[in-house]
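User: My instructor asked us to take a sequence, write out its structure as tokens, and then describe one feature of it. I'm not sure where to start. Here is the sequence I was given:
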Amino acid sequence: MFRTISTIVTAVACTAVAACATATETPKATNVSQPTTRISTAYELPGDRVYPEGIAADPHTGDIYVGSYANGAIYRATPGAKRAETYLPEGADGRKTANGLKVDAAGRLWVIDSTTGVAVYDTTSRALIARFDVPGTGPRLVNDLAITPNGTAYLTDSLHPVVYRITPDQVTDAAAHGGRADLTTQFDLSATISTHAPDAFTLNGIVSDDSGRYLLIVDMNSGELYRVATASNSPDPIRKVTMRGADLKHGDGLELHGDTLWAAQNASNTITRWKISDDGASVELERTVTDESLRIPTTLIRSNDRTLVVSSQFDKGGPMGPGTPITPFAVLTVDGI
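Assistant: Let's start with the prediction itself. The structure tokens for your sequence are:
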């Protein structure tokens, strides 16, 4: 999800997609031959006002789903396709936005509407299975989600320092009783996150480790990272992660495989790669790619050994500023990160 800014930081001379990018390594890697970084278009998206935000891969089919923050539409790119098709039309089921996306092991597509909550769809029939809404009428910005190996989903809210939880049993129960239920708070990080302005966006990207024992959550305002243990009896449930080499200012979407963490840092047009150690208690920067052709990257996934990055263009007539976007909107492949 975006963060309001006054300037967009750019630091490279490459001006076109399918161009070179500025890449840096941590000092210990300077004597090692590093791969060339290249940015190219993976998928084009239909429409001239898409402003994509979220992305998800179906592990069973290889399909890639992308959500529009502007109108709530969902697009799907099948394996081998160069252009996505509309999978769920804009405004479907009352959805105003589509940001955080995930496909779970059961083949269900989770779609966050930042203004209300999250909807769960059957990917084969496209049928809505259940919806979970934030109770009340106060401001909210439900942003991103992670799904652990046991099927439990955890969601962030960028206007409140909390993490919501939805278990598989709750999805089944909601589907059997009208298809709607309320989101409930599982973790409250208000005592841990750094001081910030009341209207600042904070918690954003969230990922689970391979075992589902802990979550990593980025605070896009401070650039800090938090480790949250999922077990109810953990002696150290919420802690700030030690970061070496940089911070995650403007941190948006995260991707985690094994002990490697990737992050999209939207306003700085940057993708970073980190090494995780100490059971998630510390991370060290390994590689940074900064390029203006990323055009406000909001999130990313690793799929079939590719790093796919959502190029939102939020600063070109979208939620981050006036202007005219470059069309078609696209999902990019970033090699070498």
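For the description part of your assignment, you could build on this observation: The two ends are 21 Å apart (CA to CA). Try explaining in your own words what that tells you about the chain.
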